[in-house]
Design goal:
There is one protein chain. The protein has a domain at 13-93: predicted glycosyltransferase like domains (Thrombin, subunit H, Beta Barrel). It is built from no helices and 7 strands. The protein has strands at residues 13-14, 18-23, 26-36, 39-44, 53-57, 66-79, 82-89. The radius of gyration is 16 Å and the shape is globular. Mean pLDDT is 85; it is low at 1-5.
Length: 118
């Protein structure tokens, strides 16, 4: 049996946290829906085009709780005035979410069942 879904680089967790997004000196508040060491899904009052580079700040992490990211996915309007955006960190940030992210190892790859053919 062939696995048609690509493997994720890390485990994603559903967590709602406020974050600040900075673009060209302007800041807006958004909220996460899903977090991981490689990015986040946010609900944002601003919709940005794919590949737009932003700075994301986690206000729950004192000093140094910010990193560069880019818009990697657009999910349209979740509700009027709130846009679903997938933000990918430019560099993985294993400690960006602090204690809000429980470091869980990714699931092991599936094993083939006896008698199956690839």
């Amino acid at each position: 049996m062939e696995d048609s879904e690509p493997r994720r680089r890390s485990v994603r967790q559903k967590v709602c946290l406020p974050v600040l997004l900075e673009y060209e000196g302007s800041f807006i508040t958004a909220h996460t829906g899903v977090i991981s060491p490689v990015g986040t899904l946010v609900l944002s009052p601003q919709d940005w085009p794919l590949e737009t580079e932003l700075e994301i700040e986690n206000p729950r992490i004192p000093e140094g709780g910010s990193t560069k990211c880019k818009v990697a996915w657009q999910g349209g309007e979740a509700r009027p005035g709130l846009y679903k955006l997938g933000l990918e960190f430019i560099e993985p940030q294993p400690n960006f979410w602090g204690a809000d992210y429980e470091a869980v190892p990714p699931p092991p790859p599936p094993t083939e069942l006896p008698g199956s053919t690839a």
